[in-house]
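During the second year of the project, the team shifted from modelling isolated chains to modelling whole assemblies. The rationale, set out in the original proposal, was that interfaces cannot be judged from single-chain predictions alone. As a representative example for this report, we include one of the complexes processed in the last quarter. Its constituent sequences, exactly as entered into the pipeline, are reproduced here:
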Amino acid sequence: MNNNYAHSAQSSSPKSATSAVSLKNLNKSFGDVTAVSNLDLEIPHGEFFSMLGPSGSGKTTVLRIIAGFETASSGKVFLEGSDVTELAPFDRDVNTVFQDYALFPHMSIQLNVEYGLRARKMPKAERTKLASEAIESVKLTHLADRFPHQLSGGQRQRIALARALVLRPKVLLLDEPLGALDKQLREEMQVELKRIQREAGITFIFVTHDQEEAMRMSDRIAVFNHGQIEQIGTPREVYENPSSAFVASFLGVSNLISGPPAKELFGSEQMVNVRPERIKLQKDGSKSASDEIAINAKIVDVAYTGANTLYVLESEAGLRLVATRLNEELPGQDLGLEAGDRVLATFRKEHVAKIPNNK
Amino acid sequence: MSAIQKVPNRPLSTYLHKRPTTRLIALLALPMTWLVGVYIISLALLLVTAFWFIDPFTSKVIVGFTIENFVNIFTVPAYFATSIRTLGIAVAVTVVCIAFAIPLGIFMAKLARPWVRNLLAVAITLPLWAGYLVKLLAMRLTFTEEGLVNWLMAPFGINGPGFGIPVTILTLVYLWFPYMALPVFTAIRQLPLNLFDASADLGAKGWATVSRMVLPLITPAIIAGSVFTFSLSLGDYLAARFVGGKTQMIGSIIASNINLNPPVAAAFSMVPIAFVVMYLMIARRTGSLERM
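Output from the structure prediction step:
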C-alpha cells in the first residue's frame, strides 16, 4: 500500500538539472499593499520545502501565485524550467491541498478523488481504479461512499491529500493543511506527510506559521517577513545561525543581545543570539571555565513545561535572559532553583551566534 | 431580597399559560382564517365551478356535473395547442432566466468589487419597483415596428422580431428575472471561494467547474427561482396580449371566458396548477427539495 507513488519518484529524477519551481523577481501588490516584493527562489526536485512566517508575511500569496490562483504583478514563475507565469491553474502541473480542505460537499469521497481525473477525461474504469488506490493509500477505503460532512477533520485532510496526489503532480502545494487539526492528530499527519513525500518523491511546498512543524518536516525552510524571504536554509542553519533578529525570535526562543551589554560581554556592539538551552545554570559562587562567558543573575520567574523548565533571569546590569533546562531529574533531585535565587549563568563562546542583519 | 413570591394579577396570561391548545388557537386564528377561508375555499370553489356548464341558449351557468370542460382542453385542438404553447413559453422563460442568472451570479458573488455588486443588486431588483404595466409598455415600445430595436437594426438591414412568441418570452424574462437572479446570486455567494480554486487546481476549466460544481450546489436555489418564473409565466396573459401579437396563452383563454363561460375559465385555471404540481413532483424525485 505504500508503493503507490513509487514510480513518479523515478520519473522526476532525470530532470534534476532544473529546479522543480523557480521564482524570478516576483512582485505582488493588492492595491497599495505590497504582499510580495522582489522575491527569488529556487526549489530543487523532491525537496520538502517550507515557507514559514507570520500571517501577512506573503507566504500564502507566493503559494497562490505558484498554483495560479493569483497573478504576479511582475516577475516570472517557472515549473520544471518552463515559464508558467501566464498559465491558468488548470494548465499547471501542480496541485494544492487547501487549509480547509475544499472538498466538494455534494460529492462522495470517491467522486471527490475522481474529480481531477474526470477533468482529464480519463475513462471511468481507469479513474475509479486510480481513485480507489489513492483512497486506500490514505487508509480510508471504508469511507469511500461517505460525504465530506460525515468525515472528521483528519479524515477530510487525508482525502484532500489523496485528491491532489492521485493526479501525480510535479509539485504539491500545501497551504497550512494541518492548521485545523488538534495537536496529536497534527503530529501523526506530520509523520504521514513526510512518509508520503519520501515515497512519492514529489516536491512539497508547505506553508505554515508553526515553526516546530516546519523544522520537523522540512529539508529547507524559507522564513518570510514583510513579503520577503529573510533567510533560507536547513532547519539547523536557520535555527543555529539566524540571519536576522526576526528569524532568531521567530524560530524558537532567543536571547538577543546588542549595544552596550554586548560590548561589555563580547567586546562588540554587534547583535548576537544565544539559545536558551545553551545557557547553563549553576549555584551562585560557582567557577566558570575559560572558554565560557559567565553572567551573575537573579531568577525572576520559573515555568515548568513538562520536559523542560524555563527560567527568566535578570543580570546585575539589567540584561534579561531566558534559559531552559531539560528535566532529567525528578523534582527534589535537581538543582531546586526558585524565583529570587542568585545563579551563575554560563555559555560557551562558540554558542554565541552573530546576527549579520541587525536592524 | 424578599423571599415571598409575589402573585401578579394577570388573569389572561395565567389562563393561557395553563392551556397550550387555547394558546395555539389564539396564535393561528388570524393566519388560518386567511389561508383556509380565503385561499383554499376560493380555490376549491373554482375547482367546483369547473364541473358546471353553460346553457347554450341562455348562456346562463347551470350548476351540475360534467367533465366536458376538462375533456375539451385535450380534444379541442386550439385549446390543447395553447396549453402546450404556454408550457413551452414558461419553460423557455425559466431556461433563459437560469442561463442569465448563473454567469451574473458568479460575477456578482465572486468577481465584482463590492460597489459593483451593490449596483448590480439594485439594478436587478429595480424592475420590481416599477409597475407591471409600465414594464409591458416599455417592452412594447422597444419592440414595436418603429421601436428601438428596429431603429438600431435598420442599418444592418435586419428587421427585429415583431410581436410574437419570442418577444413574449423576452418580456416575461424581463418581468420575472429578479425572482431567479436573487436566489441564484445568494446561493453562489454562499459557495466557498476555495471550491472554485480547488476545481481549477484539479484541472477543471470554466464550463466544467460550472456544470460539475456550481450547478449541482445551487440546484435548490434554481428550483426556488424557477417555481416563480415558471408559475408566473404560466399564469400570465397581459404579456401575450400586449407584445404577443396573435399569441394566445392559457391566460388569454381564461380572460376571454371569465364572463362568457366561467366553467371553461375555471377548468383552464387548473392547467397551470397541474403543470406546477407536476414540476414540483419531478423536482422532489431528484432529491433537490430536501436541500432547500
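DSSP finds ten helices and 18 strands in chain A. Chain A has two domains: 6-249, 255-354.
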